[in-house]
Design brief:
- The protein has nine helices and seven strands.
- By secondary structure, it is of the alpha/beta class.
- It has one domain: Alpha/Beta hydrolase fold, catalytic domain (Rossmann fold).
- It has a seven-stranded mixed sheet, with helices on both faces.
- β4, α2 and β5 form a beta-alpha-beta unit.
- The longest helix is centred in the last third of the chain and has 20 residues, at about 215-235.
- The chain is globular, with a radius of gyration of 18 Å.
C-alpha cells in the first residue's frame, strides 16, 4: 500500500502522529503540511486501488478499509497515539477507526465530513421540506455511481467509488448504526462549511440527471442536520470544538489551509497538555 511520511524522525515518544484519510477517490493533504511545525509527524496513504496502491478485491466494507489502515500502521511500527484527519468521506472512516481502536486514538479532525449519522426518516423529511426530488442519501449514492464510471476520473477513483457504492448499497452507512459513543478522552474537531455558494458542477449534475434539487433550501435542511449530528457526537469530549464556516467550499483545506493547519495543531497540543 502506497504511503508517505513527514517528520517521522522528529516524533518524540508518546506524541501523536497525524494519520490522514482522504475523501472519495483519494486526494492529498499537501497544502496543509508546510504549515505545520516540523515536530509534528504525519502519514498519508492511498486506499486500495488508488494511486500506487494495488487494488485488493477483498476490501469490500468500511470496516475492512479501517482494518487495512491499522494493519499498515502496525507493519510500519508506527505506534499510537493517532490523531486522525479525515476529509469528506474520510470523516466516517476516521470515526469508525476510533470506534474499533479507541485506546489508540487521541484526536479526530473532520474536514467537511459526510453525514454518516443521517437517518432514513431525517433524509426523507429534509427532501420533502426543501421541495426537492432527490435526498442527501440518494445523491451520495449517485455521486459514487458517477465517479465509478466517469472516464475523466482515475482508475483508482473508479475502484474506490465502486467499493464504497457496494458497501452503501446494503444500507446507508449501515456499519455505523450501532457504534459506541466516542471515547470521552478523544479530542474532536469538526469543521463544516455551510450556506455554500452553488457551484457549476452541482447545477450541471442536477440538470443532466434531472435530480430536481432546490439547492438553497436543500442545503439549509441538510446542513442543519449535519451540524446537529456532529455537535452531538463531540458534546461530552474535552478539548473539542465545532467550527462553522459560512459560504466556504467543500475543499476547506484548499480554500484556507492556514485555518485547517491551526485547528489540527490545536488538537495536537491539547493532547500534549494532558
Amino acid at each position: 500500500m502506497a504511503y508517505k511520511t513527514s517528520n517521522l524522525a522528529n516524533r518524540k515518544a508518546g506524541e501523536p502522529i497525524l494519520v490522514f484519510e482522504a475523501g472519495l477517490g483519494g486526494g492529498t493533504f499537501d497544502p496543509i503540511l508546510p504549515l505545520l511545525p516540523n515536530h509534528i509527524a504525519s502519514i498519508q496513504y492511498e486506499r486500495s486501488g488508488i494511486g500506487s496502491s494495488e487494488p485488493d478485491s477483498r476490501i469490500v466494507t468500511d470496516s475492512q478499509v479501517v482494518a487495512r489502515l491499522h494493519g499498515l500502521l502496525q507493519t510500519l511500527a508506527i505506534q499510537p497515539p493517532y490523531l486522525l484527519v479525515g476529509h469528506s468521506m474520510g470523516g466516517p472512516y476516521i470515526r469508525l477507526f476510533a470506534a474499533q481502536y479507541p485506546d489508540e486514538v487521541c484526536g479526530l479532525v473532520f474536514s467537511d465530513p459526510t453525514d454518516f449519522m443521517l437517518t432514513d426518516q431525517e433524509d426523507e423529511h429534509a427532501k420533502v421540506v426543501s421541495q426537492s426530488k432527490t435526498s442527501y442519501q440518494q445523491i451520495t449514492k449517485i455521486i459514487m455511481e458517477q465517479m465509478s464510471k466517469n472516464k475523466n476520473s482515475s482508475a483508482g477513483a473508479h475502484i474506490d467509488a465502486a467499493r464504497a457504492l457496494t458497501s452503501i448499497s446494503k444500507g446507508y452507512f449501515h456499519e455505523y448504526r450501532k457504534l459506541p459513543p466516542l471515547k470521552k478522552e478523544i479530542a474532536a474537531t469538526v469543521i463544516i462549511s455551510y450556506n455554500k455558494n452553488i457551484e457549476l458542477p452541482d447545477e450541471e449534475l442536477d440538470r443532466k440527471l434531472n435530480l430536481g434539487i432546490n439547492f438553497k433550501a436543500w442545503w439549509k435542511e441538510y446542513d442543519e442536520l449535519r451540524i446537529q449530528h456532529y455537535a452531538a457526537l463531540l458534546k461530552d469530549n474535552d478539548h473539542s470544538m465545532l467550527v462553522l464556516l459560512p459560504k466556504y467550499s467543500h475543499g476547506i483545506y484548499y480554500q484556507n489551509p492556514q485555518l485547517v493547519a491551526k485547528l489540527i495543531q490545536d488538537n495536537f497540543n491539547s493532547y500534549k497538555k494532558e
